[in-house]
Amino acid sequence: MPRLLECVPNFSEGRDQETIEAIAAAIDTIEGVTLLDVDSGVSTNRTVMTFVGEPEPVVEAAFAAIRAAAELIDMRHHRGEHPRMGATDVCPLVPVSGVTMEETVDFARQLAQRVGESLGIPVYLYEAAASRPERENLAYIRQGEYEGLMEKLRDPAWEPDFGPTAFNARAGATVIGARDFLIAYNVNLNTTSTRRANAVAFDVRDRGRVKRVGNRLTGAVVRDEHGEPVRVPGTLEGVKAIGWYIEEYGVCQVSMNLTDIQTTPLHMAFGEVCDRARARGLRVTGSEIVGLVPLRVLRAAGEHFLRKQQRSLGIPEREIIRIAVRSLGLEEFTPFQAEKRIIEYAIAAQEAHKDRLVDRSVAGFVDAVASEAPTPGGGSVAAAVGALGAALGTMVANGSAHKRGWDARWQEFSDWAVQGREALETLLPLVDADTQAFESLMAAYRRPKSTSQEQAARNRAIREATLGAIETPLETMRAAVRSMAVIKAMAQIGNPNAVSDVGVGALCARTAVRAAHLNVRTNALTLADVPGVEAPEDDASGGSRSDVRQMLDEAAELAAQAHALEEEILGLVNAKLEAD
Q1: pLDDT in tens, 361-382
Q2: Residues 25-64: pLDDT tens digits?
Q3: E-strand stretches of 31-158
Q4: With 0-12 CB in 10 A as exposed, 13-18 as middle and 19+ as buried, what is 451?
Q5: Catalytically annotated residue among 89, 180, 432, 434
Q6: In the predicted model, what is the mean pLDDT of residues 169-190?
Q7: Residues sharing a CB contact under 8 Å with residue 149, sequence separation 6 or more, in sequence order
Q8: Catalytic pick from 82, 106, 275, 415?
Q9: pLDDT tens digits, residue range 389-405?
Q10: Whether 345 and 397 share a structural domain
C-alpha cells in the first residue's frame, strides 16, 4: 500500500489568477507531489488546492505554498465572503493510505513549527493535532477573523502554538492540523419537498433535532435544567446533514458531510438514508460524491455490497469499484469517472508518462525483456511470474466461491481469494521495483571517487543500493510463498474442474521463488566485490555484513518452503488427475 498524504490548503485569494498560479507552481516544484485540483471562488476570494504524495514531499510542498502565499497575498487589502484569518487560512493534512493519524499529527506539528519559526507567522493547531480541546474546532480558532487578530494575539489565552505573538499584518495567522478525510456526499430522493428531505436529514445527522412536546414541528421545545434545548440525536455519528432542492436535477437531496469515515463509512450513510427515506414514504434514487475520494472508501463500499450478495471479495479491484458505483447510484445524473474522482487513480493517470512495465501489454513486456538493455531482467520476470501464480490461485478461489451448490461456502473461498489478491497486489509493483533497484545501484557505481571522502560516500551509496537490490527480490520470494498457501488450499478444497490451473499456479510461484533467490544471491555478491563497502565502521545501521547474512538466511528458508509446498501441491493435483 502506498504511503499517501493529502494536503488541502485554503488561500485567501480567488481573483488574481497570477497569484493563484504562482502558489500552484510552488507546489508543483516539489518532486513526488501531484497537484490534483485548484478551485477558486471570486465571491469568497478564496482558493482551495488539493495535492497528494508521500508524507515528506507533501509537507515540503505545503511549506513552499504557505511561503509563496505569505509573499504574494497582503491580508490588509483582502475582502471576501468566506471567514479567514490569514494568507494561508487553513492547511489540513489528511491520511489517504499507508499513514496513520498519529503520524499525520506529527507531520502537521513539524510543518507548523517550521512555518512559525521560519516565516514569522503565528500558527494554531486544530483537529487531531490540537494542543488543547477547545482548539480542535476551526471555527473557534478563527473567531474574530483577520480584523480581530491583532487584539486576540495580545491575550495570553490566544498564544499561538508556534510562531510569534506579534501581529503579522501582511500574512495574518495560519491554522494547521490533521484530520480524517471529509467526504461531501449527497443522496438523491424522489421528492421535490425540501421539508421532507430535511426530515430525513434530521433523522440521520449526528446533532439530530430539537426535542418537542407533542407535534415535532410546532410543539413546545423541551429544555434541560440549564434552559438549553434538549436534542434527540440522529443515527449517524460524525455526520452533518441538511435537506435541499437542486434545481439542476429537479429533485431534493440529503446533503451530508461525513467527518468520521472510520465510524460512519460512505456505504453506511447511504444505507441509513435509504432506510429513513423508506420509512417516510420516500425512495433513494442515487447519490453523488463531491470532489475526490480515497480508493479505500469506494473499495469498502464495494466489498460491503459484495458481502450482501454473498460474493467473493477477491475479485479485481476495478470490479469492486464498479459494484460500488452501481450500488450507490453514483451515475444517476453524471458519469462517475474513476480516473478523475479516486485519488490514487488520479495520481496514476497523471503519472502514466512514466511508462511502467506493469502497464505494458504482454507482448510489450516480453519485447522489453528481449531487448539489449539490462533491464527489465530476471528480477522483474520473477515478480511477473509470481503475480501470475497468485492470480491463478485467486481465480480458483473466486470461481469456487461462485460455484453452483457451494453457496454456503462463499465466505471460506472469499477469504482465500482475498489472501491471494493481497499477494498479487504485492507482486505486481515489484516488476517495476526490481528495475528501479538495479538503476539505483548503477547510479551509485557512477558516483565520483577521486577523493577519500568521495570514495567513502560512493561506498555508502553502493551499500544502500545493494541492500535495496537484495530486499526487492526477497520481497518477491515472501509474497510468492504466501500465495502458495492459497494455491495449496485450492488444491485441497477448490473446484476440482480447475485442478490443472492450481498446478500451473504452483509451478509459477515456485519458479518466482527460485528465480528471485538467484537475484538475492547475485546482488549479495556485490558487497564483497567493492573494497570497504562491508566495513562495519562505515555503516551507521550496525554493519551491512550481518544484514546481508540475515537476508541470505531468510531467502534460503523461503526457497526450502517453496520447494516443499510445490511438491505437496503437485502431489495433490496429480492425485486428483489420476483419480479422474
Answers
A1: 999 999 999 999 999 999 999 9
A2: 999 999 989 998 888 888 788 898 999 999 999 999 999 9
A3: 33-41, 46-53, 88-97, 123-127
A4: exposed
A5: 434
A6: 93
A7: 85, 122, 167, 172, 173
A8: 82
A9: 999 999 999 999 999 99
A10: no
Is 0.90 topped by the overall pTM?
A: no
The CATH number linked to 400 is 1.20.120.680
**Residue 580: per-residue pLDDT:** 67
Residue 467 sits in the same domain as residue 426: yes
Of 319, 334, 351, which residue sits at a domain end?
351
Examine the pLDDT at 541 and tell me if it is beyond 50: no
Virtual torsion, Cα 119, 123, 128, 133, nearest 10 deg: 160
Indicate the number of domains in the chain: 4
Owning domain of residue 516? 355-579
Q: What is the pLDDT of residue 529?
A: 57
d(Cα 47, Cα 37) in Å, to the nearest integer? 10
pLDDT above 70: residue 70: yes
Cis peptide before 376 (omega within 30 of 0): yes
DSSP strand E in 168-270: where? 174-178, 183-189, 209-210, 231-232, 239-246, 251-258
- Is position 77 annotated as part of the catalytic site? no
Co-location of 9 and 87 in the same domain: yes
State how far the Cα of 424 lies from the Cα of 483, in Å rounded to an integer.
8
Percent of the chain with pLDDT over 90: 74
284 in a structural domain: no
**Does any domain span residue 263?**
yes
Q: 74: Cβ–Cβ under 8 A, 6 or more apart, which residues?
A: 87, 170
Grid cell, residue 455, equals 570514495
- Paired strand residues for 255: 186, 242
Same-domain status, 403 and 328:
no
Residue 330 lies in a domain: yes
Residues 255 and 328 in one domain: no
Instruction: For residue 304, indicate whether it is catalytic.
Output: no
Residue ending a domain, among 351, 384, 403, is: 351
Per-residue pLDDT tens for 257-296?
Answer: 898 898 999 999 999 999 999 999 999 999 999 878 999 9
Same domain, 221 and 322: no
